[in-house]
Amino acid sequence: MDFKDYILFLVSAVDIVMCLIIFVHNPRSAVNVAFSLTALWAALWGFGLAMFRLSSDFSSQLFWNREFILTAALIGSSFLHFSFVFGKNDTLKLNWKKLFLIYCPNIIIFLTVITPGVLIKDILVRDWGNESILGWGYIYYGIYFTALWLWASINLLRKYKRGDQFLKTQIKYIYIGVGISIIFGATFNLVFILLGNYRYVWLGPYAMFGFIVATSYAIIKHQLLNIKVITTEIFAVSLSFVSFTELLRSKDTIEFVSRFSLFISTLIFAALLIHSVLREVKRREEMEVLTKKLRKTSKKLAAANKELERLDEAKSEFLSIASHQLRTPLTTVKGYTSMMLEGSFGKLSKIMRDGLQKVYISGERLISLVDDLLNISRIEAGRLEFNILPVDLAKIAEETVSDFQQKVKEKKIKLEFYPEPNLPPVATDPQKIKEVISNIIDNSVKYTMKGEIIVGLHQESRSIVFSCQDTGIGIDPEDLPRLFEKFVRGKGMMQVYTEGTGLGLYFARMVIENMGGRIWAESEGKNKGSKFSFSLPLADKGQAKKVG
Ligand code: ADP
């Protein structure tokens, strides 16, 4: 066995590996099946040629000679098959009629190759190797073979013209492979032997190898089969192949047993290796898919967020305009009703006075609602201005508590104020903090039906803590975390107090947080009362003047 034969075996082995890889990766794809068949015949062709060259007795020479003539014809058929299905949907198959027409001429070739004298007249042993003397039919075989390749090439050329850029690149690769194999194959395996030169037939499979590799590459690229997996597969299969040949070359039983166990270990190792690489590749692919999805979702989210911001701005704008427009006529209504009630436009009957009193109260309520809305729109537009001064919080709280005494009396509940004596001033806006305290006490009054409300004030390290504890309806634990958000009211509040807006505590939080403080609520649950507190930092010693 010389070097050329080693190469022939090696080329056949690689053809087989390509055949298996492409087939195993997608056995349902028509393209993969057609190509795997082509590679299988190419491998058998190269193998047959090598065996023919190595055979010394006539019967095996004849057997291998017939084998490689038949397998060469089969390569042509499968390549034609491939040229029909390539580029189409991978799962599309040719119908049985077409397949039969493509493959049936091989029956005739088989019959002619086993008929003595038609394709093989004789086999002679020369000093350079075995030579097959061609029969009369070989010229027709040559024409048939050339026609098959031409047809397949034209098929691919048509697809090239109609295909997109990607398909064009793929077909270019296949053409390079076909070009190499046709130049070599036609020269050494057709023209040369027809002219009576049989010395270079071994060059054909070498060229065919180029075709197999180029086409495999085109398929791999198309189906995005991972190169890492394929390389591992080739490595694992080669390793198993080497270990198998070693096994065949064992001289005695002991050697056979040890090589057999080595072979089995290699197979297991190869399987594990492929499995782990496949798993890793799959995981990476999944990660890539996930990352892509995530990127898409975050893009969508960003767009949605922008839209929301835009809507929010539009809403604030509307709120601001509407509130301004509402405030002026309401002030007029309130002013005139107040004057009427005071008797500026003459004496009023009792019925008129009662009616006007109701108009006045409703007007006041509306003004306070519009004020809340104005505050919110100012906060959102960043236009809420603070006039921060050192303030005596106890004084402000006391004033506010006394403002509510009349109301609590009517409700028959108690409202008491317990400040720690001599509290230092806090840094805050006196007007706004009064509004906040008023909101909190007002809520306690609103939501307490019996019992008492205790307002407290004490110092905690560098801040003053205000608290307002009541024995009212309490807060559902579900509602607690959201109470300080815009337009949020507790569950069922609509029944308890219809006029609420859910803006008071939001405004309070905005004010307190803007002044470096904190606001929070506590409640043991429904009907267990609630406690609202806030803390504000002490004023710097430099700011001596107290306001309140
Ligand atoms: P409003 O009182 O107009 O609904 P607020 O922002 O002042 O709006 O209060 C938000 C919600 O907090 C109220 O709807 C109510 O559910 C709850 N809440 C506030 N203060 C109390 C309190 N003292 N007791 C029970 N629930 C309260």
Task: Give a structural overview.
- The longest helix has 89 residues, at 253-341.
- With 548 residues, this protein is an alpha+beta fold.
- It starts with a helix and ends in an 11-residue tail after the last strand.
- The strands form three sheets. A five-stranded mixed β-sheet has the order 4-6-7-9-8. Strands 1-2 form a two-stranded antiparallel sheet.
- The model is unreliable at 542-548 (pLDDT under 50).
- It has three domains: 3-223, Rhopdopsin 7-helix transmembrane proteins (Up-down Bundle); 305-377, Helix Hairpins (Orthogonal Bundle), CATH 1.10.287; 385-547, Heat Shock Protein 90.
- Helices cover 66% and strands 10% of the residues.
- It has 16 helices and nine strands.
- Residues 439, 443-444, 447, 470, 472-473, 475, 483, 489-490, 493, 500-506, 530 line the site of adenosine-5'-diphosphate (ADP).
Question: What is the name of the CATH superfamily of the largest domain?
Answer: Rhodopsin 7-helix transmembrane proteins
C-alpha end-to-end distance = 112 Å
**Regions with pLDDT < 50 over 5+ consecutive residues?**
542-548
The biggest sheet, with number of strands, parallel, antiparallel or mixed sense and barrel status, is: 5 strands, mixed
β-strand number: 9
* Named CATH topology of the largest domain: Rhopdopsin 7-helix transmembrane proteins
Q: Can you give the helix content as a percent range? A: 55-70%
Strand content: 5-15%
